Amino acid sequence: MTDVVIRALDSSDADLFDTLPDPLGAREGHRLTRHRPDWKRVALRDGKVVARGAWWGGPDDTEPLSLNWFDVAEGEEEAGAALLRSAPWQVELELNLPSGWRDAPALRTAAETRFTAARKAGYDLLVERFLYRWTPGHGLPERPGRLVFRAEPDDAVFFDALRRIHSVTLDAHALKAIEEGGLDRAAQEELDFFHWCPSPREWWQLAHSPQGDPVGIHIPAHNPSGPCIGFIGVLPDERGHGYAYDLLAECTHFLVEQGAEFVAAATDQGNFSMAANFAKAGFPVVKERLNFHPVR
């Protein structure tokens, strides 16, 4: 077997990326994603593409934020690992898979080939997530009317709320941030993401009870691919009343009122209560995502 050649692509040879089969339907899943040609890399054996990766970031980012398209031909796990190890960016790897992929042998084999390559390259699984996409055909979720929503211009108020929300959390990314830098880091990472989104700062909202007690926050947002539920969080002292559904319903209505024709969202699969709220609000699972992070 000949050695693998790793190549970065540019606008002149970006079509080479498309020569590998796409059993997991990544191309359709990235229909609204803009990948830069120079952030694409391929592994070739005998001139044939056997692994590929497309790194992704916002239009103003100077470096990728994640690797969200990674494919490996069956039996070419070492080539896939070499592609990851040789990349100049060691960022989180997102693998988006069809819902129910474990029950389809061909899909499971294709997915596990990518998992093996990632692990050989020094990536560990962080979390499995559900990806949702609401469309008008599912109907707008009913607003319970129990909370009062208002904008708040002071980032410090949201920072404090995020610290409190993440003091008791199931979110894997927040837990990782807390382990690495404490609650301040977890809260700041969320704020940085909200500011990174190209949606107006004025959209961020606090939720209060009719008596004026703070209950939580919701962040209607647009990422570069379109409208999304940026964040839903209930303060620890207010949990147990189902308020996460109220926040989700309000966030969905808000985005539709701004002209959204669909709303994307995601939650960790282990967050059973939030997954139940998405189901109640009419958000179907359209894909599953596995997040791997580089550890060496």
Automatic annotation (TrEMBL):
<dbReference type="InterPro" id="IPR000182">
    <property type="entry name" value="GNAT_dom"/>
</dbReference>
<dbReference type="Pfam" id="PF00583">
    <property type="entry name" value="Acetyltransf_1"/>
</dbReference>
<feature type="domain" description="N-acetyltransferase">
    <location>
        <begin position="163"/>
        <end position="296"/>
    </location>
</feature>
<protein>
    <submittedName>
        <fullName>GNAT family N-acetyltransferase</fullName>
    </submittedName>
</protein>
<dbReference type="InterPro" id="IPR016181">
    <property type="entry name" value="Acyl_CoA_acyltransferase"/>
</dbReference>
